[in-house]
Design goal:
Organism: Flavobacterium ginsenosidimutans
Strand content: 15-25%
Shape: elongated
CATH topology of the largest domain: Rossmann fold
EC number: 2.7.10.2
Oligomer: single chain
Keywords: ATP-binding, Cell membrane, Membrane, Nucleotide-binding, Transferase, Transmembrane, Transmembrane helix
CATH superfamily of the largest domain: P-loop containing nucleotide triphosphate hydrolases
Membrane topology: Multi-pass membrane protein
CATH architecture of the largest domain: 3-Layer(aba) Sandwich
Strand order of the largest sheet: 13-19-18-14-17-15-16
Distance between the termini: 36 Å
Structural class: alpha/beta
GO molecular function: non-membrane spanning protein tyrosine kinase activity
Length: 781
């Protein structure tokens, strides 16, 4: 890419770039001066979550790190409408006061010489601005939007003016000397609470610092740094109060909850103790361990008693059987081991009487009355012993039944010991748990009371609100640089688009991209109408120099011929208006000025133009007359007298024929050319455009050189494609291209400037030099 050419393409539009820069930079400068600068005020606070966790009575979460890092609750609180509404009310953000100065900006002020007393609630305030002036009679209040003016008489603020949402009075300090404020103007802006809250919320930024745990950054963006600092300070103070109030609320709720739980646990503990008492009473349990020992011992005792009783029953039955089987004179046994002293004594008494009877029997006979009486007594006594034993046996049997029942009861009580122990253990466990919880609740209550007594906030201000006085909007350097860049980019973009869609021919490259094998013969500069005929032999005009260069380049393109015959140079173009007649005319003049016998023929029978350069009538007889009547001599129609050169003859097109195509293709024209070659050095043909009609293509083979004229910033590149097709088909031969009407002020891609190409000064040309060359002194060659 040729950067120089690309640069020159855009440099030609430098006035537009300059105008765009002036507009954008000027607009940016005015905007910076008009729009009040916006500043960023920031503060940093620390929420110590560790301190908060230490003072907690009840901790649910076990994740310390998450609780320390989680600041979402505080951030949501600070950005909530209810919280910010308190900021709006506390700082009275519904009102903004400015001192009006004669610049594009106003100064925000805090200390006012007057005070506004609202007559409506802040929620109902209108969104409006007023300008306030103080004079000797009172106040003049003007609504800025409607320019309605209100007069308030006096300084005491007793008068309510219809249409104003407030009363106004002078401050105590201003009342001492009101004349100090007569020359000043003030501006007050009113906003309803909803709008003030919305504006505050949109200008406030609250975010946690990712690099530091527990740190929150507060930022407020506004045009008044002092007001921004007050807002951030108020937010910090309110947050601190909210933290303390929330903690107090938490501790109050905690103590209340603990009291409720203590009361509930007291009832539950008493209920369990009563249940235990009833259970012990119902189960005849004093102490469970003693109860177990007692019931176990009782069971053992009952077993032993039952065993002894059974042995007594067995022995008593044996004794009865033994006594019944004994004879009358047989002694009764005393070793029955009966646990009945009565029976044992009766047996002893019986045996004693029996021994007495034996003694009597030894001294007397059996019929001895004493013996008989004693035997009768023994019999009776034996029967009594049996009766007693049977009664004892019955007693023992009854005891056996009772013992079995008691043993069963004792066994059941022993078997119920695990169940009783389990139930009593559960009761004791519940009672112990309730007791422990009761004690823990009492401890927590004491901790809550102590923490509530020494309660403090865990908020610390790391950085007090500070304002960065480097405006964030508009930033002068960035804004001006952006305006400068836009000032360049906008015309560049427009120019780029224009050039991208531009299909006109502007330089030699545009031609060579389409028809690369065709030489460029020259460039004809754009000149004024007054100078288009300035082409004499001694002329130093731009058109004369350009025509000489064109003639020289055409001579190099002419084929070499041995015979001394004239050369035919055909001038044509794609469409009408590209200047082929102009180029043919100057080429013919230049050739004649070089002492070459030249014939200029106007072959464009449809739209002839040559007569304008020679100031003759358009219908003067010429080529068409000769072609229509071969008997005529074409030399009779030549125009020889002119003010340019004595070496040039002109054959004009003549009267417009009805059939130019047929007329031009007859043999008369070719014979004319052949004869003219013997009489002239150069025959210059001004022909019709080849893309519009086919006239020129019918005789183009007669030309030695075809000069194809394209016009700067006029000829479309698509036309060159058609010409290239004509060349490839051989319909045009030995073609060279000349660029006509080159604007030297705006042209790009040319290696020289016609004003100083050969060291000449063309003061007479009337072409204005570029501004950057007007001071140059050009030396004569």
């Amino acid at each position: 890419m040729d950067f120089k050419k690309e640069f020159l393409k855009y440099l030609r539009y430098w006035p537009w770039f300059l105008l765009s820069l002036i507009l954008f930079v000027g607009a940016a400068f005015i905007f910076i001066k008009i729009v009040p600068p916006t500043y960023e005020t920031s503060a940093t606070i620390l929420i110590d979550k560790k301190q908060e966790d230490k003072t907690k009575i009840i901790t649910i979460s076990t994740d310390k790190s998450s609780s320390e890092d989680n600041l979402e609750d505080e951030i949501r609180l600070m950005t909530s409408n209810e919280f910010l509404l308190d900021v709006v009310k506390n700082l009275n953000l519904n009102y903004s006061y400015y001192e009006k100065v004669y610049t594009v900006q106003n100064n925000y002020i805090n200390v006012l010489p007057f005070a506004l007393i609202p007559t409506v609630s802040n929620d109902s305030l209108p969104l409006v601005s007023y300008e306030i002036k103080i004079n000797e009679n009172g106040f003049v209040v003007t609504e800025t939007d409607t320019e309605n003016s209100y007069t308030v008489k006096g300084y005491k603020g007793n008068e309510a003016v219809k249409g104003l949402p407030f009363k106004i009075q002078l401050s105590a300090k201003a009342k001492k000397n009101p004349s100090l404020y007569f020359d000043k103007e003030y501006k007050v802006t009113l906003e309803p609470t909803a709008i003030a809250l919305k504006n505050l919320k949109s200008s406030l930024l609250v975010a946690s610092d990712e690099t530091a745990k527990g740190v929150i950054e507060l930022k407020h963006i506004g045009s008044t740094p002092d007001r921004s600092r007050k807002i951030l300070n108020e937010i910090i103070v309110l947050l601190d109060k909210n933290i303390v109030l929330n903690k107090q609320k938490v501790f109050r709720n905690t103590v209340s909850y603990l009291n409720q739980r203590i009361k509930s646990f007291t009832k539950e503990k008493d209920s369990i103790e009563s249940e235990k008492e009833r259970y012990l009473q119902n189960n005849d349990i004093g102490v469970m361990d003693n109860y177990i020992v007692e019931k176990t011992a009782d069971r053992s005792q009952k077993k032993e008693t039952a065993s002894i009783n059974e042995r007594q029953i067995s022995q008593a039955a044996f004794a009865i059987n033994d006594i019944k089987q004994s004879g009358p004179a047989q002694t009764l046994g005393t070793d029955y081991n009966l646990d009945s002293p009565t029976v044992n004594q009766m047996l002893v008494n019986y045996n004693q009487k029996l021994m007495e009877s034996q003694l009597i029997l030894e001294r007397a006979q059996k019929n001895n009355p004493a013996y008989i009486s004693l035997m009768t007594q023994l019999k009776t006594q034996k029967q009594e012993i049996l009766n007693t034993l049977e009664g004892y046996l019955n007693f023992l049997n009854q005891n056996s039944r009772v013992n079995r029942e008691e043993q069963s009861i004792a066994e059941a009580k022993v078997k119920s010991i695990p169940t009783n122990d389990k139930v009593l253990g559960r009761i004791n466990s519940n009672l112990s748990l309730k007791a422990e919880t009761y004690v823990a609740l009492l401890q927590k209550k004491e901790e809550a009371v102590l923490n509530g007594a020494i309660l403090e906030s865990n908020l610390k201000t790391l950085n007090a609100p500070e304002t960065n006085y480097s405006a964030i909007f508009p930033q002068p350097k960035v804004f001006m640089l952006g305006a400068f860049m836009f000032g360049l980019l906008v015309p560049f973009g427009i120019t780029y688009v224009r050039l991208f869609f531009d299909t006109k021919v502007h330089n030699e490259e545009d031609i060579q991209k389409i028809i690369s094998n065709i030489p460029i013969l020259g460039n004809i500069p754009k000149i004024s109408t007054n100078d288009k005929l300035d082409n004499t032999a001694t002329s130093r005009s731009m058109i004369a120099e350009a025509s000489r260069a064109l003639a020289s380049n055409i001579s190099y393109l002419l084929p070499r011929k041995e015979e001394n015959r004239g050369r035919v140079v055909l001038f044509t173009s794609a469409i009408q208006g590209e200047g082929k007649s102009f180029c043919a005319f100057h080429s013919a003049i230049t050739s004649s000025n070089l002492n070459k016998k030249t014939l200029l023929i106007g072959v464009d029978l449809r739209n002839p133009q040559l007569h304008d350069y020679f100031n003759v009538d358009r219908n003067v007889p010429g080529l068409s007359n000769f072609l229509a009547n071969k008997a005529d001599d074409w030399k009779e129609f030549l125009h020889k007298e002119n003010n340019f050169s004595k070496n040039i003859d002109v054959l004009f097109a003549g009267e417009a024929p009805p059939n130019p195509s047929q007329l031009i293709t007859n043999s008369n024209f070719e014979s004319l050319i052949e004869e003219a070659k013997t009489l002239y050095d150069f025959i210059i043909l001004d022909t019709a455009p080849v893309q519009i009609v086919s006239d020129t293509l019918n005789f183009s083979h007669l030309a030695d050189v075809t000069v194809f004229v394209v016009k700067y910033d006029y000829t479309d590149k698509s036309n060159l494609v058609h010409i290239n097709n004509f060349i490839k088909k051989g319909q045009l031969k030995n073609v060279g291209v000349v660029i006509n009407g080159v604007n030297l002020k705006t042209a790009y891609g040319y290696g020289y400037n016609y004003g100083v190409s050969y060291g000449y000064q063309y003061k007479e040309s009337g072409i204005k030099k570029p501004w950057y060359k007007r001071g140059l002194k050009i030396k004569e060659a």
